[in-house]
Automatic annotation (TrEMBL):
Required cofactor names: FAD
Gene Ontology molecular function: NAD(P)H dehydrogenase (quinone) activity
Similarity-based family: Belongs to the NADH dehydrogenase family.
Pfam family of the protein (one): Pyr_redox_2
InterPro entries, sorted: FAD/NAD-bd_sf (IPR036188), FAD/NAD-binding_dom (IPR023753), NADH-Q_oxidoreductase (IPR051169)
Species this chain originates from: Bacillus gobiensis
SUPFAM superfamilies: FAD/NAD(P)-binding domain
Sequence ranges assigned to domain FAD/NAD(P)-binding in this UniProt record: 3-283
Entry keyword set: FAD, Flavoprotein, Oxidoreductase
Ranges that cross the membrane: none
Record bears the keyword Electron transport: no
GO BP field: aerobic electron transport chain
Protein name: NADH dehydrogenase
Signal peptide: none
Taxonomy of the source species: Bacteria, Bacillati, Bacillota, Bacilli, Bacillales
């Protein structure tokens, strides 16, 4: 019996499980899912957990049960590609025959002094819990600084505004307009929403240093009772330490079939993979479906296609509290109530099909 090991219970590996456990797993294969937590976490909703508008019960999904699926819970220390082993800090090593690395991402601090030590993160469920405890225990009229105005920063700032109307919230954005990678109409709508709801936006920001309760913008100190970092991501440390080819963002360069060049038994899915799109849950799921197709062809000794179809991503949806949102669907900007309802509906459907 050969062992297919899935590292990480994120969106990509959940989709692989969904596909393979639906009568598509050969008799000679079994699957071992490795994760630190005994449940799948809805990372796209960590902002709401940190803001205190939901409990972590709402963003946990139980891993599937199946006779040919084993679960291993532990902290991964490294991957030995030569010996085909997963090494842990808290348990014995695990051998694999085939491997899918889906360990996700961590914050990238851009060598800003003090950023890692003095800011909160929402990259993991544990970190989001800590951020939630700090933010919701703040005294009245406290100041919260959010560094980074991408999707995570925007959603956190808006959700926190609804959760704690008494707080002073400052959102630091490097661009001249918030969400500058989106169409201008959408960016202006989001910026206007923040202005109407009393969230301060600092455009053209350049965070040069962070100290305890102080963030320095262009070397000018700004006091804050809590600082949250949402200013960029990088692949998980375990992946960064692998001696394999990576792109300028530290993501693993893959063959056209999503495996490490020279090792057809090791695939990389999601945030750690070098792909022609920004990392997202949707992209991880689309890539996972192609990985399953390639696996099945290899298991059946069928020829592999020279190229795979381009990913068909449906768009991006973001929330501005409970009643408003924004999105880009089929290149069409959406603002207001509709994108918020769409996001809520998609979240419900995901939990319904995976719970």
């Amino acid at each position: 019996m050969k062992n297919l090991v899935l590292l990480g219970g994120g969106y990509g590996n959940m989709r692989i499980l969904q596909k393979l456990l639906s009568n598509q797993l050969p008799d000679h294969m079994k699957i071992t899912l490795v994760d630190k937590n005994p449940y799948h976490c809805l990372k796209t909703e960590y902002y709401a957990l940190a803001a205190g508008t939901i409990s972590d019960h709402h963003i946990r999904v139980t891993f599937p049960e199946h006779p040919k699926l084993d679960h291993v819970y532990g902290e991964i220390s490294s991957i030995d590609l030569n010996q085909k082993q997963i090494l842990f800090t808290d348990r014995d090593s695990l051998d694999y025959d085939e491997l899918v690395i889906g360990l996700g991402c961590e914050d990238k601090y851009h060598n800003v002094p003090g950023a890692e030590e003095y800011t909160y993160s929402i990259q993991t469920i544990d970190q989001s819990r800590k951020a939630s405890q700090s933010l919701n225990n703040l005294h009245a009229d406290a100041t919260v600084a959010i560094v980074g105005a991408g999707l995570s920063g925007v959603e956190l700032a808006s959700e926190l505004r609804e959760s704690r109307s008494d707080l002073r919230i400052i959102l630091f954005d490097r661009g001249k307009l918030i969400l500058s990678s989106f169409p201008e109409r959408l960016s202006k709508y989001v910026q206007s929403w923040f202005e109407d709801h009393g969230v301060e936006i600092v455009n053209h920001a350049d965070i040069t240093k962070v100290e305890d309760s102080i963030v320095y913008n262009h070397n000018e100190p700004i006091s804050a009772d809590a600082i949250v970092w949402t200013a960029g991501i990088q692949p998980n440390r375990v992946v960064r330490e692998l001696d394999i080819e990576k792109d300028c963002h530290g993501r693993v360069v893959l063959s056209p079939h999503h495996n490490i060049p020279g090792d057809e038994n090791v695939y990389v899915v999601g945030d750690c993979a070098s792909l022609p799109h920004a990392p997202s849950a949707q992209l991880a799921e689309a890539q996972a479906e192609q990985i399953v197709q390639i696996m099945q062809k290899r298991w059946n000794n069928e020829p592999l296609p020279d190229t795979l179809p381009k990913f068909k991503l449906k768009g991006v949806l973001g929330s501005l509290g409970r009643k408003a949102g924004f999105g880009l669907v089929a290149e069409r900007p959406l603002i207001g109530r509709v994108p918020r309802l769409l996001k809520s509906g998609l979240l419900w459907m995901y939990k319904h099909h995976n719970g």
